[in-house]
Amino acid sequence: MSEPDPTVTVRVSGRRLSDVLTDIASDPSRTTINVADLRDAMGDRAFGALLLVFAAPNAVPVSAPGVSTVLGTPLLFLALQMILGFDAPWIPRFLARRSIRRQSFARAATAVVPWVRRAERLLRPRLGIMARGPVERVIGFVCAVLALVLMLPIPFGNMPPAVAICILALAMLEEDGLATLVGLVSAGVAFFVASGVIFAIVKAVSLFLRHLFGV
User: Fold this and answer.
1) Measured between alpha carbons, how far apart are the two ends of the chain, in Å?
2) Collapsing DSSP states into helix, strand and coil, what is residue 2?
3) What is the Cβ-side half-sphere exposure of residue 122, based on CA atoms within 13 angstroms?
4) How is 4-33 classified by DSSP, letter by letter?
5) What does 78-139 look like in DSSP terms, one character per residue?
6) Which helix or strand (DSSP H or E) is residue 37 part of?
7) In the chain, what are the domain boundaries?
8) For residue 8, what are the contacts with CB-CB under 8 A and spacing of at least 6?
9) 154-206 pLDDT tens trace
10) What is the C-alpha to C-alpha distance for residues 203 and 31, in angstroms, rounded to an integer?
């Protein structure tokens, strides 16, 4: 079991994810970066940070086959912990210690941080009751369902739930209740799109079987 480091798991409301990513990427004392580093650096906002990290690769139009399943599993794992009311993410040791070279992390951060900063400029603490406390369990439930949808082999169906999770993650990071509402609406759209695609696939298969067997 990998527990959060009590020396670094503190409130870090004044630090944005973009700053944390930049600092980690430019820290010469690090030779590698792992998931536990990001969790510990974000303190009690680690759920939002990790949800964003695991959802973002699926929120872009192009992603490698199988990525949605691989990244959907930790998303589901994190969301279930939010539902149960965990104060900080518990990450299995084998996942917490998975690392990449700092240089590789820095290249990824160079591409991602500008987009994160653009999003952060649009967000600010407001309607706080919709971004923390009991609502976090609701967000966890929605993210759990979105993660399950994300993991389904639905053609072009992984992007809408991933975008919704990213919005909800940013809302948690910035304590922006308005963004939470936007994220929940986006989640509804993602569910609608996924159900529509599933219905269309089932209908097409049904018609094909009827034609094949002359029913």
Assistant:
1) 56
2) strand
3) 11
4) PPTTT-S--TTS-HHHHHHHHHT-TT-SEE
5) HHHHHHTT-SS--B-HHHHT-EEEHHHHHHHHHHHHHHHHHHHHH--SBSGGGTSTTHHHHH
6) helix 35-42
7) 17-213
8) 40, 41, 43
9) 766 788 899 999 999 999 988 899 999 999 999 999 888 887 777 777 777 77
10) 52
